[in-house]
Amino acid sequence: MRVIFFLALFLVATFSYSQNTIEIDQDRIIELFFKNRTAPVAGSRLDSIFQLPKKIVRIKSRNGTYTWKDTFEFRRVFTNIVTKEELVFEIQSKGIEEIVTLDEVKQLKPIVAIDCSPISIEWVEDQQYFEKSLGCNREIGVRLSQIYSRIISDEIQLFILQLPSGAYYNGMQNLIVDQPIREETQKSKGYRKIEAEFHKNGIELSNPLEQPLVIIDDKRVYLEELNQIEEQEFLSSIVLKGVQATAVYGSNARNGVMILKTASSVN
After folding, report:
1. Residue 2's pLDDT band (boundaries 50, 70, 90)?
2. Which of 117, 181, 214, 259 sits most deeply, having the most CB atoms within 10 A of its CB?
3. Domain ranges of the chain
């Protein structure tokens, strides 16, 4: 009896899910086309926006938002976990055709899967806005991945490498960016001493995404913060690598860890 009950519950949920995948909401139209700047020209009237032909407007996936306007656009938001500041990566390109037709979209059925990121598609048709969730659609996911690898991947990597130091969430995962001091003239004596200690242990500081973990007086700090500590303040330091580091500090220490004690910790 319980099996029949849960089966019925599943069928009801599935039916509700499939029936509600397309929705029309005038307030949401305004939000999408103005707040998110998907109008052809900022401030355009809705009448002029809806003179567009039947058109895929936007595809949302886990790794970002793909938009087709006059040109193709891709957008991903990086949110600082501590400050909540949002830094936005955007790229435009001409000649990127829509990867799926409206006829295809209407035929597709939502697919639920645990190991696949969901995809939703928005479009304009007959002066109305539509949105349809496709759930896990691997075929469209592959098409998006091809666009991503061809024109987006290298550019977004450069953007990430230039982010200010901090912990970010990019819509898919948490990301730690730890920028080193690059200009020799800007490095303090204390920073140079620590940098030399890392180099002696075969640890480089050039890649902000692959930095060692630095702990001063039991607090994790970014490399830029080391530049503010005077050399004479350091009392002791120890560098751990490999299993020694990860056994104690986990995957955050996969590139090594330096543990420092300063004079202020004694006082």
Report:
1. very low
2. 214
3. 56-175, 179-265
